[in-house]
Design a protein that fits this description.
The protein starts with 5 loop residues before the first helix and ends in a 21-residue tail after the last helix. α1 packs antiparallel against α2. The protein is built from seven helices and 47 strands. Strands 1, 3, 4, 6, 11, 12, 13 and 15 form an eight-stranded antiparallel sheet that branches. It folds into four domains: about 230 residues, Sandwich (Jelly Rolls), CATH 2.60.120.200; about 140 residues, Pnp Oxidase, Chain A (Roll), CATH 2.30.110; about 100 residues, Elongation Factor Tu (Ef-tu), domain 3, CATH 2.40.30; about 220 residues, Jelly Rolls (Sandwich), CATH 2.60.120. It is mainly β.
Amino acid sequence: MKIDTFRSKISSFGPLGYWRLNDASHIGAADSSGFGNDGQYSSTAIALLQGLAPGIYGASLPGSDTAYVTLPNVDAFRIPILSGLVTFKDQGTPANGRLVYFTGESTAGPGWQVMRAASGNGAVLAIDTSAQHAQTLNFPGAPFDGNRHTLAWGFDGAYLYASTDFSSWATAPYSVGGGPVPNPSASFLIGKAAIAGPGYYAKAIISDLAIFPYVLQAAQLDGLSAALGSGNDALEYTLLTARELTVADLFSIELADGTVLNWTSFDCDVVAGATRYSSMGPRLKRGAIRWKRGVEASPLELRVAGASTDVGDLGLTVAQAITAGYFNGAKVTVSRVYNPARTADGSYSALSALMLFQGWVGKIEQGRPYARITVNSLFERMNLQWPFTMLQPSCRWTLFDSGCSLDQAGFAVSGAVQSGSTASKIAHGLTNATGYFDQGRIKFTSGPNNGIWRVVQSGIAAGAAASYQQTVLNDKPAGYWRFGDLAGSSTVADLSGNGYHGTVRGGVALGQPGALAGDSTTCALFDGSSGYITLPIPKPGAFAQGISFEFWFKLPPGSAPAQPAGIFDTATGDPFTLRNFNPGGGSPAFEWKSKGQPMVGFNQPAANVWVHVVVTYRGQNAIDLYYNGQLYSSATAQGNGQIAWKNPITIGNINGGANGWFKGYLQEFAIYPYAMSADQPLAHYDAGVTPPSASGSGIFVLTQALPYAPAAGDTFVVYPGCDKSQRTCRLKFNNLANFGGFPYVPAPETAA
């Protein structure tokens, strides 16, 4: 693997001479260009291996006429077009002190030189020939301020060039063509001028003097700047000089939403540059990284094993975040540091890191102990398949796998076979809700079928078959008022278990005949002029999950065309209320008074006919109306809907009665903290029109018969099933954080 360093970048530009001045002894100043033009140190007072930058070392000149470096004056350096550079850190060079001095044809024409300005912290390029004396060009900035700087200069017969720290060239016309021609009989000097007199020496650490047979281009200056700033010289120095190596891999993962996760597989935190890589994240293991010549790069396999407490700044554990798709399309950078230094807080520190691999997350395989992530190189973007992720309404995980994250043992229910069972129908005494074990599994733990598994096609609870009330409660309403309270009661009970009991006000008559088949529960009659009920329920959920209202209503003979109106109003007088109303006295409708005001109207039902209604408010200003279990109509509008809610909400009028009253019968009013899925309204309607039947034993219907008919007393363990819907994930398993589907995306067979 090639490491791009400041040294290698300079060498790649073909210098005529390159003196790093990082020699370990005073024997000679080696020429790294390969041409063998080594220099000489004049004195052992010059301190060697002094640091200027990470991994870059030079010679420290003490500031005297006797401590300098001589370079051979060879024909290759006496050319009319050239450029050069030098890196240094000033330590007190006097005014007019020389960093570099190339002697000219005579003492009166001393070639070219780089020096400190006569005043201040500036630097000057001076060009002398036998015909023109002391033409100068100032370097940008103040490079003699005591910090590390790199000066670059050049001349081409038409212009002079000067740059500080790889800035754009400052130029000036070259007044005498031909360029300087150094004196072939005199040595070139570093840190001193050949001019007699005090103060013409340098007191500085100097390194990396190079001479090129052309003027460096702007792109080359940029490349040198990047190489010096990369810190790779420190890495190269460590690799070349260290007897023992400590290696730490660093992983930086940038998610699609901009979140950046910085982790390390090292035992302690590692700080590289200004970035801290945490050792407290998930356990990480990477596969081999392979480099090939050309534009081909092999993918990298990354294994992530997260503990239940690993949180990656996402509000989820790392395993949950992977399951939820947060890592899809993430950018992964793998770097490495060598011999990081231990710091006072117990972490390790390195000035910079070497990047080994960079790519985008492709395939993710979620296993129970760890996730296997394939990171494709950046070149894979040229072969990107579209769409990157297939969206589907149902969950893509299997119940109890690592994507689902639930522990199967926590959902095990033990039971025993009752008499009357057959090889395909198992009688039992479990009272879990009807449907709880549908598509689940049953394993027998005794008897002739011991150890055998079967899938439960359907499961009916012991006792009475599912009543309407139980069907509603199974779907976890935020509030549920049957209005079946005794006639004359001033309150209506909340059966959800949340205690939001309502208050009856005005002309509301309780104890009226109810709507449900085979159920004697009564209902409420609203007089249409003064009767209403207030329900003290806080806003039951967020706009993203939606809100659903469910109820049965019946209109008396002679009802106005606008009825029903005012069945509910969530925020009287607020412009963002959810309500049942009649626009301009016309047909009844349900409205969301948000941006765009989506509205769903419907035809008035016949008198004395009970109607089941579910109204869902969801997503971005969307309303769905289900009428007797079927989707009746939908409406949407632009923008994010804002739901207004004033506790208590009103049942029975609009805007406190100013815009209308509900006149009719009302029963089984429920509010859900989410948007119901399409199958729920139909299930509730069917439960309302089907009389419940008594049954002593529950029944499990198996998809495949057992080899032996079980006997009464045989034991089993049964687990719930999952139909992969968002509703089941939320209500049965309380696992919505790991739901692997997109519930509002149409199924492929219904999408237009």
